[in-house]
């Protein structure tokens, strides 16, 4: 089987600073680097690095960044045959500031990601029948994301949605297409309309998301763990204790690990553990895609924390 990720592909321009700047403030940083990013591409790399056959569907621009991104994605073992080079625009750009504690803020200029339309769905249909799960995010046009979810549902393929960045215009009928939704605490707060900042409020948010029509709701609380609600149970998975260096793509690593476990035939509870482990390991390194761990490192980490 395989995983399909339909979503954004960006080049990340990353500045490391002692702390994040205040509005109107200029700070001196101490390090700059570029890396492949975009929530779609990040999740695809995370799954592929764990040894899962992974296809990425999306667009890059007709600029130098576009070819650089394709070459980088291929180096991680991803199948990039369904990525379109859109010569009418530039590749997606993310400008990221990361403070020494690992916290970050991000500005995204979508570029080619904003041009994704129904023609890209045709490439999805070609490979969907062989997939275990379709991973979606909201960095590409919402209408296309919803159409992709509908196509996957009709094909009997599990739909996993990372509702980031938050959209206030998500139609209620979209939720009924989602098998697993995975917001972090900020996105969960925005979706349900009340503050989500601990295990108790996350459990309440997960229940409400299920009431919207989602089959399974997973709330990512970062260092405070993960809460999951299904039709049969609710459970909490504590976070793995690691020294965070850069949390930029930890949530994407979680989704990649989650999907990889499901593709391997593990239960949802086991998949959440995989997601939490992948996210924790990602946070120990700089960058987005370069921080995704390989299977040997991942397995060794799980053995060490369970011994």
Q: Structural class, judged by helices and strands?
A: alpha/beta
- CATH architecture, please? 3-Layer(aba) Sandwich
Low-confidence residue ranges: none
From the structure provided, what is the oligomeric state, counting identical versus distinct chains? Answer: single chain
The CATH topology label is UDP-N-acetylmuramoyl-L-alanine:D-glutamate ligase
Number of helices, where a helix is a run of at least 4 consecutive DSSP H or I residues: 10
The proportion of residues forming helix, as a percent range, comes to 25-40%
CA-based shape: globular
- CATH homologous superfamily annotation: Ribokinase
User: What is the averaged pLDDT score?
Assistant: 94
Strands side by side in the biggest sheet? 5-4-1-8-9-10-11-12-13
Strand content: 15-25%
Encode the helix/strand succession as letters.
Answer: EEEHEHEEEHEHEHEHHEEEHHH
Q: How many individual β-strands?
A: 13
Description of the structure:
This protein is α/β, with parallel strands linked by helices. The chain has a single domain, classed as Ribokinase (UDP-N-acetylmuramoyl-L-alanine:D-glutamate ligase). It is built from 10 helices and 13 strands. The strands form 2 sheets. The chain has a 9-stranded mixed beta sheet with strand order 5-4-1-8-9-10-11-12-13, sandwiched between helices. A 4-stranded mixed beta sheet has the order 3-2-6-7. Strand 4, helix 2 and strand 5 form a beta-alpha-beta unit. Helix 3 packs parallel to helix 4 and helix 8 packs antiparallel against helix 9.
